[in-house]
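To the wet lab folks,

You asked to see what we're planning to order before we commit. Fair enough. Below is the target structure as tokens, and below that is the sequence we designed to fit it. If anything looks off to you, flag it before the synthesis order goes out.
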């Protein structure tokens, strides 16, 4: 079944798109072979789209002690807890692509504890899980557990920020029934 709708809401994209937005979409098309539906979903309001993409680009592509794979792993684990279909599909594919391991992508979607993770990755994902389920219960011992496996305080900030961003994104995506691009399903398997 092909699902061509992007969300359950009737919020058409600005038409025509501003030149900078069109250029960004063209870059996505060239690099990814598609324009991610999440971008199209936000394109009803260019200011909201710009805010979303600025935060995404900073957290997921900017300078960090976390690798791109680690940031995608956080996105998948948070999305798994929140049962966000859009983000599990899109970021599960990113984990498969970055790791070269389709099994890892599936394990993180289902239960990250089943994956063969090193102590650093396990601590990072345990922390992201706690941010998602009970951030008010995070204590110094939780942050120290990250330091003990080599994360800096800046890295801890980044882990918390990526987890927080996906908690927000998951809720918006689920509430609006955002649908992932069909292309994601078959990639990097």
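Sequence we intend to order:
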């Amino acid at each position: 079944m092909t699902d061509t709708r992007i969300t359950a809401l009737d919020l058409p994209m600005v038409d025509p798109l501003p030149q900078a937005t069109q250029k960004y979409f063209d870059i996505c098309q060239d690099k990814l072979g598609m324009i991610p539906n999440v971008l199209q979903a936000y394109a009803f309001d260019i200011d909201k789209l710009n805010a979303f993409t600025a935060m995404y680009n900073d957290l997921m592509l900017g300078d960090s002690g976390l690798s791109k794979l680690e940031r995608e792993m956080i996105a998948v684990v948070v999305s798994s807890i929140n049962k966000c279909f859009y983000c599990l599909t899109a970021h599960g594919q990113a984990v498969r692509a970055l790791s070269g391991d389709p099994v890892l992508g599936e394990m993180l979607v289902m239960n990250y504890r089943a994956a063969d993770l090193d102590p650093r990755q396990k601590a990072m994902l345990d922390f992201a899980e706690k941010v998602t389920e009970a951030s008010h219960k995070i204590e110094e011992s939780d942050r120290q557990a990250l330091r003990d496996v080599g994360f800096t305080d800046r890295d801890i900030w980044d882990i918390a920020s990526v987890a927080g961003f996906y908690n927000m994104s998951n809720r918006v995506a689920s509430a609006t029934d955002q649908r992932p691009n069909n292309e994601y399903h078959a990639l990097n398997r």
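Structural context that might help your review: DSSP finds nine helices and no strands in the chain. The two ends are 20 Å apart (CA to CA).

Thanks,
Computational group
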